[in-house]
Amino acid sequence: MNKRLLQTSLSAGHLVLLAGTIWIVVIAGSFVWNWHQVGDSMMIRVENEAQSSSSGKQRTGVAIVHVLIGSLGLVGLEIGRRLHESSVRKLRENESLVRALYESAQDAIIVMDAKGRISYWNPAASHIFGYTNDEAIGQNLHSMLAPSRYKMDYEPALLKFQHSGRGDALGKTLELKALRKSGEEFSMELSLSGVQLKDGWHAVGIIRDISERKQTEAALKENKDKYRLLAENVNDVIYTLDMNLNYTYISPSVKFLLGYEPAEMLKKSAVDVLTPFSLDIATKILSEVMELEKSKHSEIPVRRTLELELIRKDGTTMPTEENVSFIRDEEHQAVGVLGISRNITERKQAEEKIRQMAYHDSLTGLPNRKLFSDRLGIALAQAGRSQKNVAVIMLDVDNFKDINDTLGHDVGDSLLKTAAERLKAAMRKNDTVARFGGDEFVLLLPELKGIEGATRVAQKIVENFRKPFPINTHQRIVTASIGIAVYPDDGSDEAALLKNADIAMYQAKQAGRDRYQVFKKS
Fold first, then answer.
1. 345-371 as b/e, with b when 16 or more CB fall inside 10 Å?
2. For the segment 466-476, what is each residue's pLDDT rounded down to a tens digit?
3. Whole-number Å distance between alpha carbons of 443 and 441
4. What is the 3-state secondary structure (H, E, C) of 140-180?
5. CA–CA separation, 289 vs 297, rounded Å?
6. Beta strand 480-487 with 515-518: parallel, antiparallel or unpaired?
7. Is residue 311 classed as helix, strand or coil in its secondary structure?
């Protein structure tokens, strides 16, 4: 919500605008969604202190003002009701998409709240652990699922995560043991990420049951004769390579993973199916092993877990998780590689969806205030070293409230999406355009040599907005008011720059809208 300069003496028209705006904020703010739909209640207290007067005209004026304020309250309630209906509809649509993704996943997706309790439990979690949703929700996650021997490890790690959102397990893929409802202990693979909500840090875990794979690996070590039988009856791709990365064996499931027949793969090497970046990773690890072999190092790494990207036969790429170990001869010299490859496309999509929700606006897909703040902090630090300028530009769509009220919120949402596209088209590659809410957009222009770069962008945006916006079957002219503040002259931190850009934007509106205004200290 923009902060406005309030004049001490308001006309009746100003009173109407102010009261209506306050009611919109109250009603719309109560339906802002997060993991727990936490909303901050707002209270508006209007204290009117008037001295008694024997004048009849003065008493009549006070009565009129009271009637106006009461009427505005009713108008505000109606506006709030409409905003509520639109907000709920949009939130339900987004929630349905995310829930469909999570509930159709084959991996368990579990959310732990800021107090260590389970707050989300998808169907795959029930299948893997044996607990129903009702049995799991609200339970302490570690007490229910972790073997007791892990307690001394997870308790301090949990405290660290709750305090700072950091932890050694975040952003990694770990192999751990877990407990089913039956008490059975099994092997699992855990990918963990953190999301900061209002009540603290929440953890999102994606869990895969790898007990079958672990059994397969154990069997391979015990009896080579069983190797081929097991390899040809699992969904993961099992393969061997020589030390030049040529395939010497690959299981039939490669057909489903990469589209190649096993015979085709035996004519290839890993170089042919790894993207350049992934090939660099694989080559580096192989080189490290070879150096250790030459030095007769006694602690040669036995196994590695990597995330690589493979090229399918049709040219598309696929993210995979590779678990590799080294095949050794009788003298313990590495002579080949044994690997197990798994498609992790679904997991990557879930992780990206979580990241997108945390840092982007759901309507336009633009960065939200949190991501904008992160990027502004980086830009200011760089500008301090390079002695360059950073511009913060605040933009409001002129008369957007009238469009919402007369044409409906669906039309308003469509207009905001188009506005977002026009803003992105006016920006440089390294610039950022974010949506803070409503019709409020904020632009970040780093690495400027002066204010001229910012004013050129602002003028381009003003001209782009003058082009008709398609609304239903009609074309409508929609203008924008823009305020510019520049580091370091107009502020040295985020709060000062946003405040002064907002002041400049308000000055642009006072000057007639459809223009930009550079902040002036006077």
1. eebeebbeebeeebebbeebebbbbeb
2. 999 887 777 88
3. 7
4. EHHHHHCCHHHHHHHHHHHHHHHHHCCCCCECCEEEEEEEC
5. 10
6. parallel
7. strand
Identify which of 7-21, 58-72, 214-228, 281-295 has the greatest average pLDDT: 281-295
| 183-188 own/partner pairs: CB under 8 Å, 24+ apart | 185/147, 186/211, 187/211, 187/213, 187/214, 188/128
SS (H, E, C) 442-486: EEEEEEECCCHHHHHHHHHHHHHHHCCEEECCEEECCCEEEEEEE
Reference 324, options 301, 344, 307, 303; nearest CA is 303
Give the chain's mean pLDDT: 80
pLDDT level of residue 226 (50, 70, 90 thresholds): low
CA 468 to each of CA 187, 305, 374: distance values in angstroms, whole numbers, following the listed order = 60, 54, 34
**What is the distance between the alpha carbons of residues 460 and 468, in angstroms, rounded to a whole number?**
15
Distance set, CA 315 to CA 232, 309, 344 (Å): 25, 12, 18
Give the 3-state secondary structure of residue 300: coil
Q: How many CA atoms lie within 13 A of 228 on its CB side?
A: 4
Question: 12 vs 19, 67, 72, 399, 513, CA distance in Å?
Answer: 11, 12, 11, 19, 22
pTM, 2 dp:
0.43
The architecture that CATH gives domain 105-209 is 2-Layer Sandwich (3.30)
Q: Which residue has the higher pLDDT, 474 or 280?
A: 280
- Give me the sign of the Cα torsion angle 161, 167, 172, 178: negative
Q: What residues are paired with 480 via a beta bridge?
A: 397
pLDDT of residue 16: 38
CATH architecture of 360-518: 2-Layer Sandwich (3.30)
List, as one string, the DSSP characters of 85-142: HHHHHHHHHHHHHHHHHHHH-SSEEEEE-TTSBEEEE-HHHHHHH---HHHHTTSBHH
CA distance linking residue 79 with residue 20, whole number of Å = 8
Residue 33 has a CB neighbour count (10 Å cut-off) of: 16
Query: At the fourth CATH level, which superfamily is domain 238-345?
Result: PAS domain (3.30.450.20)
Transcribe 222-273 into DSSP letters: H-GGGHHHHHTTSSSEEEEEETT-BEEEE-TTHHHHHS--HHHHTT-BHHHH
- How far apart are alpha carbons 21 and 26 in whole angstroms? 9
The per-residue pLDDT for range 298-343, each reduced to its tens digit, is: 455 567 888 999 999 999 999 999 998 888 877 777 888 889 999 9
Tokens of 512: 């007639």
Q: List the one residue out of 392, 438, 493, 402 whose CA is nearest residue 1.
A: 438
**Residue whose C-alpha is closest to residue 401's, from 75, 92, 40, 32:** 75
Share of the chain above pLDDT 90, in %: 45
Query: Which H helix or E strand runs over 294?
Result: helix 276-294
Nearest by Cα to 361 from 413, 430, 412, 402: 413
Cis, peptide link before residue 488, omega less than 30° from 0: yes
